């Protein structure tokens, strides 16, 4: 589906960023609000949602999952990771209020950049008028981002603000098993716990590690066992 702006080639949605393979943990209420397939008939979805949390908790995954869902329904969406786009012109934002969904990731990256703060303030107003659904993610809540334009800070608090909670070790086991299921293989609790205890505590890194182990398992035609994980990872 064509979009009003031409984005750099590096800005792409990850194929695996779906609601189906996101383990909610303590974030079930938020996921239910974002996932239109879980919406309750007769109840209008929230137009603006701000979500925040540290790297690895899944904010980017959720924004991209929402875009995939809209696109699958033949709608039009856009995902804008400000960490990659902040050095471009704010003209990237022109016309995107005509879409069904706009997602801005890492919005704190614009803090202190006057032209971007003013452009985002204007975008908020256009999105409100066009009733476009708007999802924003950051590592901190609106008033802790260091944004100078107070009118923009106020706009960031318009709708619902959610903290995305990290998973505990038990939930991480469930999240790894769910991701393994969608990759087409079974992962035992024992192996999942071993990976978590020996690998990174960051879920993004854990999923990357799982992908590496899956590829190695396919090449070697061996099941994912603790001895095999030790061999591949040299642990």
UniProtKB/TrEMBL annotation:
InterPro entries tied to this protein: DnaA_dom, Hda, Hda_lid, P-loop_NTPase
Keyword Protein biosynthesis attached: yes
Domain of life: Bacteria
Domain Hda lid: 169-233
One GO term of the biological process aspect: DNA replication initiation
Chromosomal replication initiator protein DnaA ATPAse domain boundaries: 15-162
Keywords: Initiation factor, Protein biosynthesis
A GO term for molecular function: translation initiation factor activity
Cross-referenced NCBIfam families: DnaA_homol_Hda (TIGR03420)
Name the record gives this protein: DNA replication initiation factor
Species per Swiss-Prot/TrEMBL record: Endozoicomonas elysicola
Taxonomic lineage of the native organism: Bacteria, Pseudomonadati, Pseudomonadota, Gammaproteobacteria, Oceanospirillales
């Amino acid at each position: 589906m064509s979009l009003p702006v031409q984005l750099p080639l590096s800005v792409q949605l990850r194929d695996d960023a779906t609601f189906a393979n996101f383990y909610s943990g303590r974030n079930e209420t938020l996921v239910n609000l974002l996932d239109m397939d879980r919406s309750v008939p007769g109840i209008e979805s929230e137009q603006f949602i701000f979500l925040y949390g540290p790297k690895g908790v899944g904010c980017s995954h959720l924004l991209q999952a929402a875009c995939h869902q809209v696109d699958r329904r033949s709608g039009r969406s856009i995902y804008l990771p400000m960490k990659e786009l902040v050095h471009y012109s704010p003209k990237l934002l022109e016309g995107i209020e005509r879409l069904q969904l706009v997602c801005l990731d890492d919005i704190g990256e614009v803090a202190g950049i006057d032209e971007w703060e003013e452009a985002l303030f204007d975008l908020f107003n256009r999105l409100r008028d066009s009733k476009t659904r708007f999802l924003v993610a950051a590592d901190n809540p609106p008033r802790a981002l260091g944004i100078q334009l107070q009118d923009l800070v106020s706009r960031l608090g318009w709708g619902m603000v959610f903290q995305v909670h990290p998973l505990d070790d038990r939930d991480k086991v469930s999240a790894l098993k769910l991701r393994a299921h969608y990759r087409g293989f079974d992962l035992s609790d024992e192996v999942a716990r071993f990976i978590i205890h020996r690998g990174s505590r960051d879920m993004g890194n854990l999923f990357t590690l799982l992908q590496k182990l899956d590829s190695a398992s396919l090449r070697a035609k061996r099941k994912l066992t603790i001895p095999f994980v030790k061999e591949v990872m040299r642990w």
